[in-house]
Amino acid sequence: MMPMRRRTFLAFLAALPFLKGGAKAQSNRLTRLFGPPLRSPIRRIFVAGPPSAVMAYVLTPERMLGWPTQLSAPAREFVLPVVRDLPVFGRLVGSSATVSVETLLSLKPDLILDVGTVDATYLSSAERISQQTGIPYALVDGRLTESVQQLLELGELLGVQERAQRLAAYARASLAEAARFRAGGRRPRVYLARTATGLETGLEGSINVEVIEVAGGANVAAAAGRGGLTRVSFEQLLSWQPDIILTQDAQFFQLTQTDPLWGRLRAVQNKQVYLLPSLPFGWLDGPPGVNRLIGLRWLVRRLNAGAEPIDWRAETRLFYRLFYGQEPSAAQLEVILKTL
């Protein structure tokens, strides 16, 4: 199996202005539009949740009306000044939704953007909200494997095709690399630990842990069934005995290093617990958006001994400049990469 050399990967990115292609035919589009026809230009975008916020930010940050959740003080330093002080409106859909129809109407957005899970519940919510407000609503399938098409379709919708093509090229190369390694060989057993306890994770099919499968690993929590996020017991983890434990929670990572209970897991004994970066957005989750593409490149190398090593300082500078619009300083790089 031939890994993609870094020189080849960078050459591929260098050819970005010449990349052709857009969204697939209408019948295969990931974007479902509800409500009245869109009017150009789209200048004001309301984001329905965290994955939507990341997508709007990487494509057209100056059009965002606000954030669905509060950015932490450290995260603010990694995003462009134009969005650092935007208001927080909350989430529009789901069990933790807090945004009212009145708030939406008062903001006068040209578009509601919702990227993530597409099922009967979210389709119904999108249709209902667009009917109640008269505001166009775009619901986009947010699966990691569809990152290329997400970017191209929304680039076309928002009139930022050239930028979308640059981002889509990075996504295409990263996903193609992962697919080559996923095609064969042993699949290491992986547990993605969420929260300070480490006992929240995603079941089989959960968008929050799909990076494991895409990178070529096996999600041990799939043994508990299909679904979304769930809580598991330590006894279940003992029976699963993952080869690798991944987390973005520093408190939980420290727990695995000091608590004898967690020392009963082979992954802890073998020093196979990894704390991944989360600034300004998570490398593996938090949210489950296109921010995961750099984490995918890291995880492919952790799970596959044959993958070519990467200079993570150079790769991080490249990804952050390309997707987040600014290159991290030397001090910021130390913060991001200190646990890798």
Automatic annotation (TrEMBL):
<keyword id="KW-0732">Signal</keyword>
<feature type="signal peptide">
    <location>
        <begin position="1"/>
        <end position="25"/>
    </location>
</feature>
<dbReference type="GO" id="GO:0071281">
    <property type="term" value="P:cellular response to iron ion"/>
</dbReference>
<dbReference type="Pfam" id="PF01497">
    <property type="entry name" value="Peripla_BP_2"/>
</dbReference>
<dbReference type="InterPro" id="IPR002491">
    <property type="entry name" value="ABC_transptr_periplasmic_BD"/>
</dbReference>
<feature type="domain" description="Fe/B12 periplasmic-binding">
    <location>
        <begin position="44"/>
        <end position="307"/>
    </location>
</feature>
<dbReference type="InterPro" id="IPR050902">
    <property type="entry name" value="ABC_Transporter_SBP"/>
</dbReference>
<protein>
    <submittedName>
        <fullName>Fe(3+) dicitrate-binding periplasmic protein</fullName>
    </submittedName>
</protein>
